[in-house]
Design a protein that fits this description.
287 residues; mainly alpha; three-stranded mixed beta sheet; 67% helix
Length: 287
């Protein structure tokens, strides 16, 4: 889900100190000079330092080896989602989030920039981190749409596996994938739809806020996270209108804008139809 959809987070300033972890980091630790204290307090202090050493160097490994950060965060998220909705739901959600975010990663790297593998955040989705940023709104839109395209392919694959095997775990994964990517197509704040349609017109941000309002007021789909995204999207919408004449946006050719709008609409229609079809299958199976 950018975010749940992908979040594009700028790199921290370079650090030239001697420690592997910068002093301003909450994970930085400088132990006090050793003392020859003995007894219970001395043993407790030594044990605490030993535990901290394990935690500290474990954090360093997670930072230095991105694959470990992805695996560790995926396991933590799986446990949280499994506790909430069961292991099948957790597995389907983690896989669909991973496929979606890897779509962003592949496109970022195709454009010659560096990006990490996804890092999962329980109950918030997943994020990727990149050290560089696109130079035009078109390139940013291409990164934005790559996630939903990959996620749609993944959800469709899960649906086809269900039709060939009858395993309802695949149907659940497909339902999660279709809904997750449909939600990300709302053009508001940091959702992928906002990045895709930003070069087309800033008015789509207004449309996105309207879509959220309709989902809450008409369909009674009220989610704290969705409402928070809408509130944060107000500032993004205003910035979109202020920057509409910036070359970052105006350099995008008209045919590219039309292609982005058509691709967004096509994905929304397909994801909407498939979401309804999967929902109908669940209703028929529950009878």
């Amino acid at each position: 889900m950018p975010p749940q959809s992908g979040q594009y987070i700028p790199p921290p300033p370079p650090y030239t100190g001697q420690s592997d972890i910068p002093p301003e980091s909450p994970h930085h630790y400088s132990p006090a000079p050793g003392q020859n204290s003995r007894g219970a307090l001395g043993w407790l202090g030594s044990a605490a330092l030993a535990v901290w050493a394990v935690v500290k160097y474990g954090l360093i490994f997670l930072v230095k080896i991105p694959a470990l950060a992805t695996l560790f965060s995926a396991l933590v998220s799986f446990g949280a989602y499994a506790w909430l909705r069961g292991p099948e739901f957790a597995a389907g959600l983690i896989v669909m989030l991973f496929v979606h975010e890897m779509g962003h990663v592949v496109e970022i790297r195709r454009q010659g920039m560096r990006a990490t593998a996804p890092v999962f955040v329980p109950f918030l989705g997943a994020a990727i981190f990149q050290r560089e940023h696109p130079t035009t709104a078109l390139k940013q839109a291409e990164i934005g749409i790559a996630g939903p395209i990959a996620g749609t392919v993944g959800a469709t694959a899960a649906f086809l596996l269900y039709t060939s095997t009858g395993n309802q775990a695949f149907l659940l994964a497909a339902a999660i994938g279709f809904f997750l990517n449909l939600l990300n197509m709302i053009p508001v704040w940091q959702l992928d739809g906002a990045w895709i349609l930003a070069p087309v017109s800033p008015w789509f941000q207004v449309v996105g806020l309207g879509m959220v309002a309709v989902s809450v007021l008409v369909f009674h789909f009220a989610s704290f996270l969705l409402i928070l995204i809408a509130v944060l999207g107000i500032g993004t919408m205003r910035a979109g209108f202020r920057n509409a004449k910036n070359p970052y946006y105006t350099s995008v050719p008209v045919n590219a804008r039309l292609a982005l709008g058509a691709a967004w609409l096509g994905l929304v229609l397909y994801l909407g139809v498939m979401s309804l079809q999967v929902e109908g299958l669940f209703v028929s199976l529950s009878r």
